[in-house]
Amino acid sequence: MRASLIQTAVDPEEPVAARRARVAELVRAQRGSDLVVLPELWPVGAFAYESFAAEAETLDGPTAEAMSDAARDAGVWLHAGSICERDPEGPLYNTSLVFSPSGDLVRTYRKIHRFGFDKGEAVMMSAGSEAVTVRLPETTLGLATCYDLRFPELFRALVDQGTEVFVVPAGWPAKRRDHWTLFARARAVENQAYVLACGTAGTHAGVEQAGHSIVVDPWGEVLAEAGADEEVLTVELDLGRVAKTRKDFPALRDRVLGR
Q1: DSSP 119
Q2: Could you tell me the end-to-end alpha-carbon distance of the chain, in angstroms, rounded to an integer?
Q3: Where is the CN hydrolase domain (predicted)?
Q4: How far apart are CA 238 and CA 209, in angstroms?
Q5: Please, what are the averages of pLDDT over each run of 10 residues along the chain (259 residues)?
Q6: If you average pLDDT over every residue of the chain, what do you get?
Q7: pLDDT digits over 151-197, tens only?
Q8: DSSP 8-state secondary structure symbol assigned to residue 128
Q9: Which helix (H) or strand (E) holds 23?
């Protein structure tokens, strides 16, 4: 399976509509990939809290429409990162969108672990409550978002649902970049699964972004890692490595707690 991670730059001077159109073209340029992944909250910026309410969208809003068209035009499965979702009943959510190659919105994931402690996302957005997987013809994806990486119990729940490939869009700050790569490798090793972790470049509301999107295999080996600027990583995933790793080193069968 060929996967492409688009490490999108978020420039506060670029209008959201312009970035949406530009990113849609970047997705279209990945024709030939099977799966394309975008970062967390790329339309507005993960730390642009003051813009969340104004830029919030419904699941049939302009970002979903643009990404649906781009997925269909490219003929790819598209994890379109996440948007500020405005639920019809009022709450905001940090919601990931997954589109099929025909452009259908097949799954959404509302971020469970909200970052900010007592400010920002943690108080402005509601929490999701469901671990979400997506069945592709080749494999099963498990969905997580940014801060979720710090909570291994979510990844265990996703493994129990059949996950072989974790997809983690993020807006991770540069000052904690080492944590980003550490957690991506740890989640891969402990669950013997691929991790596709796609971050942003640029600066969100004065917060420099880590970039360094990363693809890790089920043994914890880094297959590809981006730099700090906008970049596309394209990697061929040997999905048979998941089953082989779990067979050759069957640590998951020795789990006791959490069963």
Answers
A1: S
A2: 31
A3: 1-239
A4: 30
A5: 97 94 98 98 94 95 98 98 94 98 98 95 96 98 98 98 98 97 98 98 93 98 98 98 98 86
A6: 97
A7: 999 999 999 999 999 999 999 999 999 999 999 999 999 999 999 99
A8: P
A9: helix 16-28
- Distance from C-alpha of 1 to C-alpha of 142, rounded to nearest angstrom: 16
- Say if CB 19 and CB 42 are below 8 A apart: yes
The string of DSSP letters for 67-80 reads HHHHHHHHT-EEEE
**Furthest-apart CA pair in the chain: how many Å?**
52
Residue owning tokens 């043994």? 219
pLDDT on residue 89: 87
Q: Which of 99, 44, 31, 109 is nearest to 66 (CA)?
A: 99
Q: Which domains, ranges and CATH numbers included, belong to the chain?
A: 2-254 (3.60.110.10)
Rounded Cα gap, residues 117 and 168, in angstroms: 20
Active-site annotation, residues: 40, 111, 146
